[in-house]
Amino acid sequence: MNELLVQKDLRLRYKSFLITENGLQVKHKSLLRSGEYLLAYENVGTRIYKDNKGIYGLLFSSALVGLVSVLLYLLRNDGEGVDSSVYLFYFGISLILLLLYLLTYKRNFYLVKHGNVEAIEFLQHKPSKAAVNTFINVLIETRNTFLLNKYGQINFSCTREENYQNLVWLANNEVINNIEFNHMVDKLNQAMQQQQPHRITFDFSLN
């Protein structure tokens, strides 16, 4: 198993995600930090949470300064004696502010568990939207198979309640749905009943 997703963006951020037999291997690198860790499948969620962030003050300031530049340009064309370097200066400031906004703007989305916890951050549409969606689908399928094999098998060395709690955990973590949960509980009850030793009864009634 070697499903790999590599993501890069213009802000020199690098992320790689590798699906392994034991979990999701994550590597990340930016200008200020880098790291690597293995995330167990128990901590991988199935829900997608999108988040767009940016310093909107930079965008507003860019638009405002750009408007001043346009007004100065119009005044110059009307013969008001405005030097060309003035509106070009404001226009340059507007472009710098716009560039700073674009560099700080983030369109990310996260794979999270119920309650928006244990978030795994992905870069949107890097290298493409289809590639990211395909990788996440494979990750969730691999995660569900792993957890089902680990917690969904009947363990006769454990009590019925312990086996039942494993099934509850699978349902709460969206590995199985309600129909599958009820079916597995019925199967558990039948298996546990068959494992119980047959009781020998004696008839002490008088004929």
Walk me through what this model shows.
With 207 residues, this protein is α+β, with helices and mostly antiparallel strands. Among the domains are: 1-49 and 110-131, no CATH class; 55-104. It is 47% helix and 23% strand. It has five helices and seven strands. It has helices spanning 56-77, 84-104, 129-151, 160-172, 178-195; strands spanning 3-8, 14-19, 23-29, 34-40, 47-53, 106-113, 117-123. A hairpin with a 5-residue loop joins strand 1 and strand 2. Helix 1 (56-77) packs antiparallel against helix 2. It is elongated. Residues 198-207 have low confidence and may be disordered.
Give the helix/strand layout.
Blueprint: E1 3-8, E2 14-19, E3 23-29, E4 34-40, E5 47-53, H1 56-77, H2 84-104, E6 106-113, E7 117-123, H3 129-151, H4 160-172, H5 178-195
Antiparallel strand pairs: 1-2, 2-3, 3-4, 5-6, 6-7
Helix pairs in contact: 1-2, 4-5
What's this, in brief?
This protein has helices at 56-77, 84-104, 129-151, 160-172, 178-195; strands at 3-8, 14-19, 23-29, 34-40, 47-53, 106-113, 117-123.
The span between the termini is 71 Å
Oligomer: single chain
Biggest β-sheet, characterized? 4 strands, antiparallel
In order across it, which strands form the biggest sheet? 1-2-3-4
**Residue share in helix:** 40-55%
% residues in beta strands? 15-25%
Shape: elongated
Spell out the helices and strands N to C.
EEEEEHHEEHHH
Number of helices: 5
On the 0 to 100 scale, the average pLDDT is: 85
> How many β strands by DSSP?
7
Q: Given the helix and strand composition, which structural class is it?
A: alpha+beta
Q: Note poorly predicted spans.
A: 198-207
Computed Rg: 30 Å
